[in-house]
Write a structure and sequence with these properties.
Length: 323
């Protein structure tokens, strides 16, 4: 079958309200609010937005609610250039998350309420649609649609990429399902404890099925292997970090974009790290997603032309209108 899409994301869409504060207040306390933005979010969804912004042809498979947030999330995918023909509306509310970025600590916290997550029909999880992609990209959240999408991907030799963000009971299944497994430090510690032999432990998972295993380590960089090439990269520095929300998500997007281009493993990881780092200089998970030109400029001379993101920041500040 002809490959219509580079990557299809499999995840229900999420509405984010991003707040930049001094730090989390104590009980009965108060803190100062520096900025706020309405954005769409989600692990796989933000990775797909990053892929599309970089120039890949992408689509999403998932659900939204019948509320205004659902409409926003779908329109946000269109805004980033993502095919939304397989995003389905279900009666109810869209998952909503308040994302708190602390200026003093550079930490982040989340408060969320779960929205619609009813099973999709066989017609909605279309086998030909999945077969038309080179990769599918999934989050750790279990769903009937994801399980069927993975089965179709395996049947049609579509690579399965996993954002192993939070460690869960289905961790072993995630490893076994993956062709490209990118773990957060939290997921890694769930698998290996505080063992810091990152490359060695990543290599140990290759026998389970993945072709590539990577762990992202935040302020310590990233490490990984494909069995032939090992790498350990330090983090980038030199710019003010505003918010690390979405850092891992867009790392996945950057990595899949580079991998689809046929680049070497370490080059893919370095490109992905740059995408993630640039995104962290803006509030929220999507304002700071760079295009390829921005990434190449940063890798060449270390500069970030933030003025190119200003229009997007204004868009997210004003896009929600209340009557």
């Amino acid at each position: 079958m002809d490959k219509v899409f580079d990557v299809i994301g499999v995840e229900n869409l999420i509405m984010d309200f991003a707040l930049r504060i001094d730090r989390l207040p104590e009980t009965d306390g108060m803190t100062e609010l520096h900025d706020y933005l309405w954005q769409s979010g989600g692990n796989a969804s933000s990775a797909i937005a990053a892929l599309a912004r970089l120039g890949a042809k992408c689509a999403m498979l998932g659900t939204i609610g019948t509320d205004e947030f659902g409409k926003f999330c779908k329109n946000d995918m269109i805004y980033h250039g993502v095919d939304v023909s397989h995003i389905y509306q279900q009666e109810g509310q869209t998952t909503f998350c308040v994302c708190l970025a602390e200026e003093e600590t550079q930490g982040r916290s989340f408060v969320s309420i779960k929205g619609v997550n009813e099973p999709l029909t066989d017609e909605q999880v279309d086998e030909d649609f999945i077969a038309s992609a080179k990769y599918i990209h999934c989050s750790v959240i279990e769903s009937d649609a994801k399980r069927r999408a993975i089965a179709y991907a395996k049947k049609h030799n579509v690579l399965v990429s996993y954002d192993a963000g939070s460690y869960r009971d289905n961790a072993e299944q995630i490893v076994d399902d993956s062709d490209i497994l990118i773990m957060s430090h939290q997921f890694y510690k769930g698998m290996f404890g505080n063992n810091d032999k990152y490359v060695e432990n990543c290599r140990s998972l290759l026998a389970r099925g993945p072709q590539i295993v990577i762990v992202t380590l935040g302020s310590m960089g990233c490490a990984g292997t494909d069995g032939t090439t090992d790498f350990r990269l330090p983090p980038f520095s030199g710019h003010t970090i505003v918010d690390t929300t979405g850092a891992g998500d867009v790392f996945h997007g950057g990595f899949l974009y580079a991998h689809n281009m046929g680049w070497g493993l370490e080059q893919c990881a370095r490109f992905a790290s740059a995408v993630s780092y640039i995104n962290c200089t803006s509030l929220g998970g999507r304002v700071g997603i760079p295009d390829r030109e921005m990434v190449e400029q940063f890798l060449a001379d270390g500069t970030i032309d933030s003025s190119r993101l200003e229009e997007r920041r204004k868009h997210y500040r004003s896009v929600m209108h209340f009557q």
